[in-house]
C-alpha cells in the first residue's frame, strides 16, 4: 500500500515543506529504491519480492513523479536539492544510513546520497551524469519524444496498445530490451505516470548541467549497465569507473535502460551483493 509522508527540507530559501509517497515491504537492513525520470516506484516491482526476502525495501516516488507531489514553487530539482529531500525523508522514517539502489535519474541521486554519506552502499543502474554533451542531448531528445508520445495518445488507445505484445513493444521498447515481459497493466500505469509527471520539465532543465564528477569514498559502490541500453549508452559506465575508481562495474547482458524488468534475478543479485 502506498503511503505519503510529509516533512521539512532545508533549501537556499530556508525550510520548506515536502511530501514523498512510498511503499515498504520486507525485513532486514533498509534498502531505498529510486526510479528514473518520468517513471514511478512500480518500476521496481519485478525485483521487490526478491529483495524483500533479505531487506526492508522502501520504494519511493521521487518528488514530482508518480503520486508524490511536486516540490514547492521555487525549489529546484537539481541532484543536491532532491538528494537533501531524500535525506530528510529517510530521517523522517528513522532510516539510519540505508542501502540505496537507483536507476537512471535515481542512479545519479543514489550516488549523490553516497557522496554525502547518507547511505551505507550504492547500486547505480545506468546512472545519469556520465555523458558527453552530445550524449546528453541525445538522451534528453529521446526522453522528450517519449513524453510527447505519452501526452498525445488517448488513454483508451494506450489501454488497447498495452493489451498486445506488439503494442507494449511500441510503447516501451526504448527503455526495455524485453518489453513483452511487462504486463499490460504495468505499461498502462507507467505511460500514465510519464504523462502526469509534474517534475519532468524542471528535472530536464537542471539536468543540462548535471555531471557527476566526484568520487564516492568509504562505502561499497556498484555501477551496472545494460548492454542494450538505448538511452544512456553503456560506454558511460567506463567514465563512471574513472570518476569512482573503487566502484565495481557490472555488465547486465541483454538488459535495456530499465533493467529490473529485463532480468529481475540478475538485478536483484547485483543489488544484494553490493548491500552485503
Automatic annotation (TrEMBL):
Keyword field: Hydrolase
Pfam families linked to this entry: Abhydrolase_6 (PF12697)
Cited SUPFAM superfamilies: alpha/beta-Hydrolases
Occurrences of domain AB hydrolase-1 (ranges): 31-269
Bilayer-spanning residue ranges: none
Recorded superkingdom: Bacteria
One MF term in the entry's GO annotations: hydrolase activity
UniProt-recorded name of the protein: Alpha/beta fold hydrolase
Amino acid at each position: 500500500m502506498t503511503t505519503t509522508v510529509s516533512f521539512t527540507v532545508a533549501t537556499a530559501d530556508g525550510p520548506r515543506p515536502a511530501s514523498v509517497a512510498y511503499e515498504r515491504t520486507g525485513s532486514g537492513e533498509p534498502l531505498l529504491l529510486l526510479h528514473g525520470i518520468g517513471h514511478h516506484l512500480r518500476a521496481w516491482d519485478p525485483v521487490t519480492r526478491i529483495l524483500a526476502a533479505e531487506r526492508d525495501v522502501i520504494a519511493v516516488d521521487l518528488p514530482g513523479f508518480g503520486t508524490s507531489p511536486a516540490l514547492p514553487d521555487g525549489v529546484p530539482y537539481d541532484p543536491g536539492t532532491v538528494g537533501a529531500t531524500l535525506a530528510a525523508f529517510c530521517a523522517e522514517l528513522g532510516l539510519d544510513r540505508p542501502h540505496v539502489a537507483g536507476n537512471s535519474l535515481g542512479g545519479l541521486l543514489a550516488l549523490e546520497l553516497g557522496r554525502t554519506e547518507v547511505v551505507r552502499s550504492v547500486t547505480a543502474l545506468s546512472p545519469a551524469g556520465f555523458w558527453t554533451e552530445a550524449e546528453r542531448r541525445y538522451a534528453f531528445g529521446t526522453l522528450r519524444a517519449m513524453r510527447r508520445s505519452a501526452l498525445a495518445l488517448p488513454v483508451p488507445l494506450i489501454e488497447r496498445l498495452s493489451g498486445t505484445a506488439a503494442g507494449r513493444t511500441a510503447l516501451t521498447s526504448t527503455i526495455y530490451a524485453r518489453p513483452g515481459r511487462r504486463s499490460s497493466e504495468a505499461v498502462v500505469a507507467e505511460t500514465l505516470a510519464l504523462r502526469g509527471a509534474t517534475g519532468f520539465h524542471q528535472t530536464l532543465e537542471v539536468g543540462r548541467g548535471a555531471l557527476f564528477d566526484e568520487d564516492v569514498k568509504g562505502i561499497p559502490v556498484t555501477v551496472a549497465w545494460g548492454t542494450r541500453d538505448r538511452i544512456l549508452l553503456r560506454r558511460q559506465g567506463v567514465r563512471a569507473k574513472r570518476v569512482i575508481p573503487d566502484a565495481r562495474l557490472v555488465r547486465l547482458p541483454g538488459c535495456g535502460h530499465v533493467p529490473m524488468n529485463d532480468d529481475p534475478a540478475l538485478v536483484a543479485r547485483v543489488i544484494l551483493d553490493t548491500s552485503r
